[in-house]
Amino acid sequence: MLFQHRKEKILNLLSESNTVRIHDLVTRTGASESTIRRDLMALEEEGLLTRVHGGATKVKNIGIEQKMSQKESINHEIKAKIAKYCSTLVKPNSQIYIDAGTATLELVRVLPNDKRIQVVTNGVDQALLALQRGINVTLLGGPVKQNTHAIAGITAYQQLERMNFSFAFIGMNGLSYENGLTTTNLDEAMIKECAMQQSHKIRILMDNSKIDQIYEFKVNAPTQAIILLNKQAKVNSPDTIHKLANHFDLHFL
Amino acid sequence: MLFQHRKEKILNLLSESNTVRIHDLVTRTGASESTIRRDLMALEEEGLLTRVHGGATKVKNIGIEQKMSQKESINHEIKAKIAKYCSTLVKPNSQIYIDAGTATLELVRVLPNDKRIQVVTNGVDQALLALQRGINVTLLGGPVKQNTHAIAGITAYQQLERMNFSFAFIGMNGLSYENGLTTTNLDEAMIKECAMQQSHKIRILMDNSKIDQIYEFKVNAPTQAIILLNKQAKVNSPDTIHKLANHFDLHFL
DNA sequence: TTATTTTGAGTGAAATTGATTGATTTTGAT
DNA sequence: ATCAAAATCAATCAATTTCACTCAAAATAA
């Protein structure tokens, strides 16, 4: 596994749970302890995490500075760009599904402030932001996951089955040629699949940091799904992208 | 368990009750007494707590109330007191329902930080705060109300009907002799009733400012419901309280 | 090919941990 | 108030884990 990929995996894991342990990263990446140690040192040098004995934690921001760092988070601009594009797809008088996750949160931030749009989401953060922006929102019901603040489970699933959407905007953790779309959690994987099945059009929000990343659970996307990526992905991983293009409908921004 | 984890846990526990005991921390974290002792020393060094014989207490800040106006501060104190009392009623391994609203939000703030407690709520704010405090939470599904951030509707209702709780903590807008318990919204009123019906024990969180207030929709409480009020209510509205006592189980704090 | 970078393994140093000791403080009964 | 028992504390030590560093092998680039 390349340094770039390990680095992205580490940061992705860290964004989902406040701390990562070195031993866990060793088993997850298959790299040696020395290598992981070096990676963590490099990432700390970049100011992207704080090393602690036994692993690493998120950098803790003080008060008002928090917003700043959120913007400085490596992929924020990419996510914002993709979110902006998605927001142009949303028409008034439509019911749309927005998945939990950081990329889709950006979408809520820039969504047209229109009372006629009906947003359905399984993300508590998404719901709150939509409320603050005065957008109508419906939450799925069920247990809330600690790390991702996503709602998943049988109740949410059954609730989704009765709905249908003109658009679904889905987040995803990994995309690779071998395993396709993957994510970290079975419940959430099922919710993603179900939401996509109920949707007329589908956009999966990703970026180059997710390419060649493989997580535990596969997610099958319907044929009408379009995967959104930034152009940099084509530059960074041309081979993977080329192979993926045979099986997925990729769209570059 | 990483030092970071223990540190967060200790501070979390401290935020919900003014003091923590070393022995309690030992059992909760699974670490040895020596380790906990060292943690407390480190945290004291950081100025995050003060050690006392047998455990540690919060470091007292000067003028914490500065920001709030006097009226807000008093109102907040009443709610905090009632919330604190409610938190003592919650036992581990229990499933409890917490209604949306400001009074119940205080309850979430001081709820024991125990993974074995299952919180079910229809309040988005409640859910988020519980998540931040590391408490397991399940959200009801459905449309979210703009002003109250409460989830209500047929989906939430049906979801509730399948559940049962050892305790329900309900917020309410008004209490009067003529109309009993009243609130501002039909959907929310129905959710409150349904939640109460599914609960073994019920506490309705109120204060003197709600007495003699009448809103549009009546809420019928089961006989086992106990209404919590501050003692000031008895002083301010002795007649109303006296008459109410014939029909409701009032409890003064 | 050679030069450069990246990686994995090994080493001893450093940090963390849990147990033990005896001193100190608190508690409760007289 | 006084004393003994219990609880809590600080200090130390050995075992374990984690760390930083070095060096050779492997991968990559020139």
Walkthrough of the structure:
Two copies of one chain form a homodimer. Chain A is about 40% helix and about 20% strand. By secondary structure, the first copy, chain A, is of the alpha/beta class. Chain A has two domains: about 5-65, Orthogonal Bundle (Arc Repressor Mutant, subunit A); about 75-250, 3-Layer(aba) Sandwich (Rossmann fold). In chain A, the strands form three sheets. Chain A has a seven-stranded parallel β-sheet, sandwiched between helices. In chain A, strands 1-3-2 form a three-stranded antiparallel β-sheet. In chain A, helix 1 (about 5-15) crosses helix 3 (about 35-45), helix 6 packs parallel to helix 7 and helix 8 runs parallel beside helix 9 (about 185-195). The radius of gyration of chain A is 18 Å and the shape is globular. Residues about 60-70 of chain A have low confidence and may be disordered. Chains A and B meet through helix 7, strand 6, strand 7 and helix 8 of A and helix 1, helix 6, strand 6, strand 7 and helix 7 of B.
Helix percentage range of chain A: 40-55%
Instruction: Report the biggest beta sheet of chain A as strand number plus sense, adding barrel if it closes.
Output: 7 strands, parallel
End-to-end CA span of chain A: 26 Å
Please give the count of helices of chain A. 11
Please identify the oligomeric state.
homodimer
